[in-house]
Amino acid sequence: MTCKRFATRYGVSMRSYRLAYTLLAMVMTGIWMSWLRHLPDAPLYAWPEGWRWLARLVQFVGLYVLWRTFVSFDVAAFLGLRAGGEDAFHERGMYRYMRHPMYSGVMLILLARPEQSVNGLAFTLVVGLYFVIGARLEERRMLLEHPAYAGYRRRVPAFIPRLSLRH
After folding, report:
1. What does the pLDDT read at residue 120?
2. pLDDT at 21 over 90
3. In angstroms, rounded to a whole number, what is the distance separating the alpha carbons of residues 108 and 104?
């Protein structure tokens, strides 16, 4: 039984469930990141000073992807702060170019760090694995709840948009 089904069975509203899920995820991520910062670490690499602007540019692109993703839907409903359409399927904004733009934006930011440590790389790899597994589970659910998602899935890549000169 999934957590969502468990919550529904015991009368928890989807809004309350989403808010609790978001808060728990934030707390657990904070604990994990705090623990990770206290582990012994070693530098892995550092971009040469003259090339750091390129890393920052890639990180800016990641922030832009995140921003464009969040403006395409109701963030308050997503976080559980307001009742809203549960997991609505749409192809607006960044979702026209990739199915998981939030994950892609975060990965651009993490992968383009101009200085990387062993623990930082381990964190990035674990987050990336979490995103791949999470995307598969999310897509399985979307296919069950939204039949049109199958066509969207065939047309639109998951994480890396297709580059095309035609519109």
Report:
1. 94
2. no
3. 6
Burial 96-122 (b: 16+ CB within 10 A, else e): ebbbbbbbbbbbbbbebbbebeebbee
- The answer to whether 103 touches 135, Cβ cutoff 8 Å, is yes
Report the range of poorest mean pLDDT among 5-14, 68-77, 154-163.
5-14
- C-alpha 152: how far from its chain's center? 19
- The domain tally of the chain equals 2
Q: Are 22 and 51 contained in the same domain?
A: no
- Residue 138, amino acid: E
DSSP codes, the chain: --HHHHHHHTT--HHHHHHHHHHHHHHHHHHHHHHHHTS---EEEE--GGGHHHHHHHHHHHHHHHHHHHTTS-HHHHHTSS---TT-----GGGGT-S-HHHHHHHHHHHT-SEEEHHHHHHHHHHHHHHHHHHHHHHHHHHHH-TTHHHHHHHS-SSSPPP-S--
Q: With 70 as the cut, is the pLDDT of residue 84 above it?
A: no
What's the mean pLDDT when you consider all of the chain? 88
- Report yes or no on 162 lying in a domain: no
Tell whether 63 and 140 lie within a shared domain: yes
